[in-house]
Automatic annotation (TrEMBL):
CAAX prenyl protease 2/Lysostaphin resistance protein A-like domain boundaries: 123-218
InterPro entries in UniProt: Rce1/LyrA-like_dom
Protein name per UniProt: CAAX prenyl protease 2/Lysostaphin resistance protein A-like domain-containing protein
Keyword Transmembrane annotated: yes
Transmembrane segment boundaries: 18-36, 48-67, 87-105, 117-138, 150-171, 183-201, 208-228, 248-274
Superkingdom of origin organism: Bacteria
Annotated keywords: Membrane, Transmembrane, Transmembrane helix
């Protein structure tokens, strides 16, 4: 019976580690909710709620890696100059992917932009803080401990496909997920998950995927004014005015993530990362040594 739980080295199999992490995170979330209800805590703002979820996710990850006698930084948080460079590069890449997608849609006559009123630096920074929390929370869940253990146990493509499907499924409850929009959004969110997975696999760090996730969401919503996975709470610096073109071209109210151009741009980015050999082992070791020394 133990062979179902232990591998040849006598360690718990990766699948059980993933299930254990999910159970732990859910238990911590339920427990925190019960405490908040007992003390009649007011409902937090969206930004605070996102960061609370991110902290709970990080604590669950910390517990799991410590049970394995590993360090939290081994999940992809070896902070140092390389980490912050990759984070910045990821943010720029995410922004670039959304801008290119929007320009393709605009080039086909899908919309035109009008400048929004009363949107300044304060609103843009507040949106960045919100989307940073979203990026941290979703990346530590989808490219952090459970993803990495599944990759270790079953290989990168199993990890990629399982978490791409899970990432897309978790967005099914978002506003606007119906009909053809649901099909295109599911496809593109799955492709985005594979893209973010390659960001981790090629760098062995969560800096690039967190940065890309942040840049993608912030550019799509706060800068360009589109919906972000169906949510329209964040107002953009610019407002797109649609011209009645099909939603498979524009993404409609759901956002650019439900459009054909987004699938093409994501596919191209995945191909580039697939062909990229990634960061060398020497570079990772050197950065880890610098972080330890500091």
């Amino acid at each position: 019976m133990s062979k179902w739980f232990l591998n040849e080295e006598g360690s718990v199999r990766s699948g059980w580690k993933v299930l254990g992490f999910i159970a732990l995170f859910m238990a911590m979330g339920i427990g925190l909710g019960m405490i908040a209800k007992a003390f009649h805590a007011p409902r937090p703002s969206n930004t605070l709620l996102v960061w609370i979820n991110a902290i709970v996710m990080a604590l669950a990850s910390l517990i799991c890696v410590r049970l394995e006698k590993r360090a939290f930084r081994d999940l992809g948080f070896r902070l140092g100059s390389r980490w912050f460079r990759e984070f910045g590069l990821g943010a720029l890449l995410g922004l670039l992917l959304m801008v290119v997608t929007a320009l393709v849609v605009k080039g086909f006559g899908g919309f035109h932009w009008e400048q929004a009123a009363a949107i300044g630096a304060r609103q843009m920074l507040a949106a960045a803080l919100l989307f940073l929390g979203v990026a941290f929370n979703e990346e530590i869940m989808s490219r952090g401990y459970p993803f990495q253990r599944l990759v270790e146990g079953a290989g990168p493509w199993v990890g990629q496909l399982v978490f791409a499907a899970l990432f897309a499924f978790l967005h099914w409850g978002n506003p606007g997920m119906h009909g053809a929009t649901k099909a295109w959004a599911t496809l593109n969110i799955g492709l985005a998950a594979i893209l973010l997975g390659f960001c981790y696999l090629r760098t062995k760090s969560l800096a690039l995927p967190i940065g890309l996730h942040l840049g993608w969401n912030w550019a799509q919503g706060s800068l360009l004014g589109f919906g972000v996975s169906g949510t329209t709470d964040v107002k953009g610096l610019w407002t797109p005015v649609f011209h009645g073109k099909p939603e498979w071209l524009t993404g409609g109210a759901f956002g650019l993530e439900a459009s054909l151009p987004c699938a093409l741009v994501c596919g191209l980015a995945i191909f580039v990362l697939w062909r990229w050999r990634g960061v060398t082992a020497n570079a990772v070791s050197a950065d880890a040594s610098t972080a330890s020394a500091s």
